[in-house]
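Narrative summary of target 7.
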Amino acid sequence: MVRGKVVMKRIENAANRLVTFTKRRNGLLKKAFELSVLCDVDVAVIIFSQKGRLYEFSSSDMQKTIERYYMYSKEIPTLKPEMEQHMQHLRIETANMFKKIEFLEVSKRKLLGQDLGSCSVKELQEIGSQLEQSLKSITARKAQLYKEQIQRLKAKERMLLEENVKLCEKCDGGKLWQQLQTQQRKVGNDCTQNSQCSKVVTELFIKLPQSH
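Modeled conformation, tokenized:
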């Protein structure tokens, strides 16, 4: 069963208010104790009930903790203006950041073809120009990747041809080597624009010749 969201206002029923106070007071003191133990910090909690009864918890001496608080509070006024100025600056930066994020989200939806009903003709033209520029960049990148891949395949092809040459020289005193050169010249003349022809020649001579 899902618990409903608690409304932050005074509980009118006195009995319910007392039960809630007892439960939450104990929970608060327990959390204060856990915080002091887990994080090795000094924690002090002071609670006065509606009837004026005192409840407190301190991980160390309560009086010393209060004295430390008073000493610290005396130093705060000298730092307060600078802190307020810094906090104001952070608030402004946060607000600007949220505006930028919202603007980027709106722009993203429009580039995806969403929420275009409120766009003017000029805005639609700008969106179209952005998409065209993006498409050009994507196409150029794809062409670059294809070019690099072709270069790697050609380098691999040359390496295999060199290995075939070495094998032919070792196996038959130069006879197969001359045959391979003839085949390579023929392939170079007929298939200069087709890398598959070189692959066929490579596969044709990759095997060792049979001895007679």
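The mean pLDDT is 79.
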